[in-house]
Design a protein that fits this description.
The chain is built from 12 helices and 7 strands. With about 280 residues, it is an alpha/beta fold. The strands form 2 sheets. It has a 5-stranded mixed β-sheet with strand order 5-4-3-6-7, sandwiched between helices. Strand 6 and strand 7 form a beta hairpin. The longest helix is centred in the first third of the chain and has 17 residues.
Length: about 280
């Protein structure tokens, strides 16, 4: 039962501003349950979870999954009051730092993105993302791995936005070759990368390992530009890795990104390069 119960939702991060909302939803679940005269243990049995898990959700210590609220609304005859919070809980399940990043990406009209260790998060397949999170040290629990991977996949909604943002990805060759999760996972990842590279608003470029000059030696670069003319960026090798928004700091990041892009293969050459990498798997 405990193994199944872990699928009921996600733990609330201490100090997360979403905590009061989760607590309110938990109280509503309890009110609805008591209104129909059902004990927590009986409700848990109907829902397929242990009483302890139900109590945790009612105390706001566990974020209920949207599917749980959908089913609970029917079981407790809540007349849509629980279902009304499904979207809120869908967003609440993602870690705070991911929600904040997703909000910035939703606003961006242009993104300049360089990755040198792995395929960028917006380009990852679910299997590839799980493999990355599964290799974290100290190890993450399976539940946390799933939560992090789901959060990463949710950020890919930027590809469906209207109007579409301009997305420029630059990847180091090694990111196309390191078989995180195994060769089959890498194969599907490269196939997906080719599919995305053909979108009209997306460019994908590869920096070959034998490129002698590489302005990306300082690590990851991300610059997000917004419609009002402002922007935010960060780089592992600049400003202690913290986000920056001043024009002077952003100019440094854009200069580095521009140099990396100039040193990379063209988008068409990069597509051919990715196809060759696929052929070697």
């Amino acid at each position: 039962m405990n193994e199944v119960a872990d699928e009921a939702g996600w733990d609330v991060e201490p100090g997360d501003e979403i905590e009061p909302l989760v607590q309110a939803v938990g109280r509503l679940i309890k009110v609805c349950r008591e209104a129909v005269g059902m004990r927590a243990a009986d409700f848990g049995e109907v829902m397929g979870y242990g009483e302890d898990m139900i109590r945790k959700m009612e105390r706001g210590q566990r974020i209920p999954r949207p599917e749980f609220l959908d089913r609970a609304d029917q079981v407790l005859k809540a007349q849509g009051h629980l279902r009304a919070f499904m979207e809120d809980m869908r967003k609440a399940r993602y870690p705070k730092k991911v929600r904040e990043l997703a909000q910035l990406e939703e606003r961006a009209v242009e993104m300049l993105l360089y990755s040198n260790h792995n395929i960028h998060g917006l380009l990852q397949t679910p299997e590839y993302a799980r493999a990355l999170f599964g290799m974290r040290q100290p190890p993450l629990s399976p539940d946390v791995v799933e939560r992090e991977a789901a959060a990463r996949m949710a950020r890919k909604s930027v590809f469906d936005r209207e109007p579409a943002p301009t997305l420029g990805f630059v990847q180091e060759q090694v990111t196309l070759e390191r078989p995180y999760g195994g060769k089959m996972v890498l194969r599907r990842q490269l196939e997906h990368l080719l599919e995305v590279s053909q979108l009209w608003n997306v460019t994908v470029q590869v920096v070959p390992t034998d490129q002698e000059d590489n302005a990306g030696a300082s690590g990851l670069i991300e610059v997000l530009k917004f419609n009002d003319g402002t922007a935010v960026g960060r780089s592992d090798g600049a400003f202690n890795g913290r986000p920056v928004s001043s024009p002077m700091d952003l100019r440094i990041l854009e200069l580095r990104y521009g140099m990396i892009r100039a040193q990379a293969l063209t988008p068409r050459e990069s597509q051919a390069f990715i196809e060759q990498a696929l052929g070697r798997l």
